[in-house]
């Protein structure tokens, strides 16, 4: 029977629908092999990418909320730990795969962009691009003035912007009246989504950006990444708890040598942690920078 038909019947009539009325009903438990482990643990990746390019096809196991509840309430045991590990392995593989796709996508774009950069740019196009850059710079300054509360300055700058926009329009019209097609010289700049690997147009319309962010593929990978991040945080917390628990429970024997040892090892671990924090900080900066530059592009396309 087709999976979804079976699932529908299960939902309507229960999973024991085919048993004789007198037969003893076997209680279902989370340990039954036909349950989807990933669904019980948190979610099934097969549900995330339906009808997208990343579609994994239907899940062959049962998604049942009752057994899921049982599993969630069950004591931590080796079987549960195995399931969690399996889940994390599965989603890590999926994330690694999309990360490789992201790297490849960026390489492709770099290659494309380097070809574009080598292309001679006409004087006219350069003049228009210069004005666009000036406009973006003024808009930024006006925003900063607004944030400072300097309303006069902000208004002055916006006035200048309006003037420059008029100049830009006039220039474009002049060039176009000489048979010069400005839009052709403006290649659409692309970027790769850091979450799902899709190609995006820099400075695209907000509605299309929203469509992407609300799309199954982007949401699916966001969910996978979040689950992995949460798992790592939990691991770190457990590690810290174990570490502090160990150091407080050990005796006061040979106090000095133990102290020396732990000082050494903890400074070593701190070192690691600092490095990790450093890396995280860098990643964050990179992300911020990227989103700033995205905003800039967006603004530029509007100005
Ligand atoms: Zn499943
Ligand atoms: Zn995306």
Automatic annotation (TrEMBL):
Basic and acidic residues compositional bias, start-end: 235-244, 252-270
- Per UniProt, the ranges with Basic residues bias are 271-303
Task: Supply the InterPro entries for this chain.
Answer: Luc7-rel
Q: Name one GO molecular function term.
A: mRNA binding
Please give the residue ranges the record annotates as the region Disordered: 235-303
What GO cellular component entries does it have?
U1 snRNP
Task: Report any one BP term from Gene Ontology.
Answer: mRNA splice site recognition
Provide the family line: Belongs to the Luc7 family.
Q: What is this protein called?
A: CLUMA_CG002344, isoform A
Q: What is the lineage of its organism?
A: Eukaryota, Metazoa, Ecdysozoa, Arthropoda, Hexapoda
Q: Which gene encodes it?
A: putative Luc7-like protein 3
